[in-house]
Specification:
The complex is a heterodimer of chains A (about 100) and B (about 230). Chain A is an all-alpha fold and about 100 residues long. Chain A contains four helices and no strands. The longest helix of chain A has 19 residues, at about 45-65. The longest helix of chain B is centred in the middle third of the chain and has 29 residues, at about 95-120. Chain B is globular, with a radius of gyration of 17 Å. Classes of the chains: A mainly alpha (about 100), B alpha/beta (about 230). The interface between A and B is small, with 9 and 10 residues.
């Protein structure tokens, strides 16, 4: 399975895990186009923290990858990597590829 | 998942950390401990890691192992700490960096990673180590006392940030206990310090575990962001 597919699966699993803790009207759609954070995003800051931690743990468990997702670079980017499921997935893939080089 | 309660203690090779391992093993905990050097003791339910508490990759690996093997973490005790008593004018920057790295960065890093594990079960206790040197503002302890002042603020703010996950964060502020940490401090300095306490004696290890017991017992789930100084500092 490609890194991209593994990351997509991890991200969707993390969304399902966080959804279990959310009331029905706040649940995220497990879809790459879902806007997560910022303008029109469905997450408040605390739920975003929970999602990031869940993804970090799943990356460790499934891919044995220890990466920090919310580092200075993520926070300083003009377009936040946490804006949507798709941008989040792309950011994770970029970090994983950097780490393996 | 391990049905036994799991505790992580930093700085367990000797002194207070070693005492806490003995004490909580006796109470039935599975314990993960760490220090820079290997431990010269072992227990079936004790797992030792050799690492610098401010080394992020190694600390994260320890937590990954703990999560994989135990599936839970009930208590973190941030005991690892270093001190250096010296006049500020004679304190090298390398000493300052070493103290801040172990005492502040280490406690932060372990607290952050512990909370990530504890939040899964929406339950956990973090106990930090402060010192009476901070409220007493002792001359000769500028950097050590300042690093522990940072721990006080860290404790109080993490208490708020982690409360959403039912993780409490408190600190115990020991008086001097006769360990390697203070063996190099001149006796007259120690006498001055003891005179400033309400109760003029050195601390004992059980004074410390008594406060930790209070912080980690189930009934203390409404106690967070608190610093308990021993000896009436």
């Amino acid at each position: 399975m490609s890194i991209e597919s593994q990351v997509d699966q991890i991200l969707l699993n993390a969304i399902h895990e966080i959804n279990e803790q959310l009331p029905p009207n706040q649940k995220m759609k497990a879809d790459k186009s879902t806007l997560l954070f910022g303008k029109d995003g469905v997450l408040d800051s605390l739920t975003l923290v929970n999602l990031i931690v869940a993804v970090e743990q799943k990356l460790q468990e499934s891919m044995n990858a220890t990466i920090t997702l919310a580092d200075e670079r993520a926070m300083s980017q003009k377009n936040s990597p946490f804006k949507s499921v798709e941008s989040f997935a792309n950011y994770i893939v970029m970090l994983l590829k950097e780490q393996s080089n | 998942m391990n049905q036994q309660r799991v505790m992580l203690i930093t700085g367990t090779r000797k002194g207070i950390g070693k005492y806490l391992v003995d004490y909580y093993i006796e109470k039935g905990y599975t314990i993960y401990g760490c220090s820079r050097e290997p431990a010269d003791y072992s227990y079936p339910n004790y797992h030792h890691y050799c690492l610098d508490v401010a080394d992020e990759p190694k600390v994260r690996q320890l937590f990954a192992d703990l999560l994989k093997n135990e599936g839970r973490l009930d208590v973190l005790i941030n005991n690892a700490g270093i001190a250096s008593m010296n006049h500020a004018l004679l304190t090298p920057v390398t000493t300052v960096q070493k103290i801040l790295s172990t005492n502040v960065v280490g406690s932060f890093l372990f607290s952050r990673e512990a909370a990530k594990v504890m939040m899964k079960r929406k339950s956990g206790r973090i106990v930090n180590f402060a010192t009476v040197a901070t409220p007493m503002k002792l001359a000769g302890e500028a950097i050590y006392a300042s690093s522990k002042a940072a721990i006080v603020t860290l404790t109080q703010i993490l208490a708020r940030e982690f409360s959403d996950y039912n993780v409490t964060v408190n600190a115990v502020g020991p008086t001097p206990v006769l360990t390697d940490l203070i063996r190099s401090v001149p006796q007259e300095k120690m006498d001055v310090l003891l005179r400033q306490q309400a109760i003029h004696r050195f601390g004992e290890f059980p004074d410390i575990s008594n406060v930790i017991d209070f912080f980690i017992k189930p009934e203390s789930d409404f106690v967070t962001g608190q610093i308990i100084y021993l000896g009436g500092a």
